[in-house]
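Thread: "does anyone have the structure for this chain?"

Original post by V.I.:
We have the sequence but no experimental structure in hand. Need at least a predicted one for the grant figures.
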Amino acid sequence: MGDGPDPIRAAGAVLWRPGESGPEVALVHRPRYDDWSFPKGKAKDGEHVLRTAVREVWEESGVRPVLGRRLPAREYEKERRPKRVDYWAATGDGGDFRPNEEIDRVEWLPVPEAERRLSYEHDADLLREFASGPSRTTPYIVLRHTSAGDKRAWDGDDGLRPLDERGRAGAAALAETLAAYGPARVFSSATARCVETVLPYAARMSTDIRTDWAFSMGTPMGASKEAGGRFARLIGEGVAALVCTHGELVPELVERACETLGAPAPEDPRLPKGGFWVLHVADGALVSAERHRF
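Reply from O.Q.:
Generated one for you, tokens below.
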């Protein structure tokens, strides 16, 4: 954006539930503008975009969403500042909506009726994009462990090297951020730094951590050569999974997954510490992939 003003960041979702003749989507009415749109809102300072999407959809619709595949972002200018709104498909039903000054009505409508009700063409385009793909997808997450200090300063077994203070804070923040995609089986390298990275998430989701030498570095058996194949088999099981591993193995996992799903691999699949890929899969095909830095 150059030297111009910082962009306004916002996020929201096409929130849907099964209907009698296909998906029904939630639209919100803003009395201030007398318009109908999808639930969305601005990010708080320092807030991860995934947490923004969950919080804003929950606040505006009364439904806590579970995010699915990524939808196209919208970029435009507002009050002489660039604005970007990131969107996801999201599941949700029920909830506890209470009218307020910002949102006074929420209605669930079949897709054709929702398209007619929407006030803005860019929202109608977003709805058509949602309707053109699978409503429900399964997430597979590849996570690189958070900060574990300087390897050269650690005198013990490298497999036992723990997270440092920054890494522990990152792991705690990741727990809530990754929860945006709902529950997933948790697999981890057998090293302390990877297990500690996913421990807060596992506690948040009340699930077990399964250590797997295939996702580990520096093992006596050299089992890390099996990382890509092991991840491909997890995807074939059709159940959401999160794998915490090492930076050296991330490209192998992502590239093998894309090969298995018949999709081109990203040019640069690498991740920074605490970063993660989310692969959204439906019917054995890769529907969308998103990378987040943390």
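V.I.: this helps a lot. Residues 56 and 97 are 13 Å apart (CA to CA).
O.Q.: and The chain has a mean pLDDT of 94.
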